[in-house]
Amino acid sequence: MEGLRAVLALWVFFCHVILYCGYPRVLPGPIEFFRAAWHALDVFIIIAGFAMWYALDHSNDKYFRYPGKRFFRLFPLMFLLFLVAIPIAKLEMEGAAILGQTASVAHIQSWFDWMWAHIGLHAVMLHGVVPKASSPSGAPWAFLPPAWFVSNVWQFYLVAPFMFMLNKSQAKFITLGFGCAAIVWFRHYLPPVGTGAFLPFHIEYLFIGACSYKLFKLFAGH
User: What is the SS3 assignment for 193?
Assistant: First the structure.
């Protein structure tokens, strides 16, 4: 499973290399398939759901202890890179100005206009929940764009223990499944966020991963 996650991460990396090298969005044959990194992202989240359920099933930690451990695993490196990214964004904006890319300059400048709000949101790793309408500067990808996924995973960690406690029996698990399905349905009426960084936009994959773990336990006889 760890090896598969490494392959999926490389897939996403390959996709970004293609885009940032300036290749057209429509590419021939298998290259076009590998450019569609959202497939890798979906599978990555399913594996995350499986891994979370496995960890929760083999842990005696109380509700707040599990996300607490996850927070200190995610936060230090993410926030350090976020702080490093601030002066780099300044250099990026200056480079865009030299090239005459006025739209890029305005977009990055909007990050600095709302800098303290972005710092506060990233400090609690909830920058992914801010709707586009409430954040003209794009909170989920401000200064450190890949951090949108960190916020998404952190939301998983906050919700997963609660979901796990609700499905001690198969019947409750089915009920929880209907609840997730309802969220998936109603998410179309939720305010849009950047890159789908809000949990309801990926919760079905988390639940698929959880179901996969339940099936694994069933067939393994545990």
Answer: strand
